[in-house]
Specification:
Blueprint lengths: L2 E2 L2 E2 H11 L2 E2 H11 L8 H13 L3 E7 L6 E6 L1 H12 L11 H12 L3 H25 L2 H26 L1 H8 L2
Antiparallel strand pairs: 1-2, 3-5, 4-5
Length: about 180
Amino acid sequence: MCTVLGMSIGHALLGLLEKEPRHGYDLKRSYDERFGKDRPLHYGQVYSTLSRLLRNGLIEELGVESGGGPDRKRYTITDAGVTDVEQWLGTPEKPDLYLQNTLYTKVVLALLSGRDAADVLDTQRAAHLRAMRELTERKRSGDLADQLICDHALFHLEADLRWLELTAARLDDLAGKVRP
């Protein structure tokens, strides 16, 4: 299924359909309110995902309603769709281990090229702190869902900052290991 930042759009739409049948427009609006504040779905994503769910027997059309605008198809989840959501919810997400990340690569390349790796770390630290200030402000003014999303991001940034500090303290040792 299509994913946005690791989340399956199809499973999110199926989960939203479990509560009640909906139109594509309603699903997009509900998704954006709950999950898409930073990355709202495009209508094309919604309708291509609905088409795929329909083709796979996870949803079905309840009918078409006419109104002031274009006709609207109403969708409902099938038993197979409910089972699919249950399996997805019960499957743990793979933890991201970051064993080889871009920042580490930049530090090593700075050392190899004779550049100041501490500058690379300082620049990244400043960017992380700026992002943390923005997230903290957003968290203060946000609803509970926004607060939880911000906490998740803040905890990851804090872990990155600990790594930045540890790496800065070990730069001389690292330089001795990576330089020929």
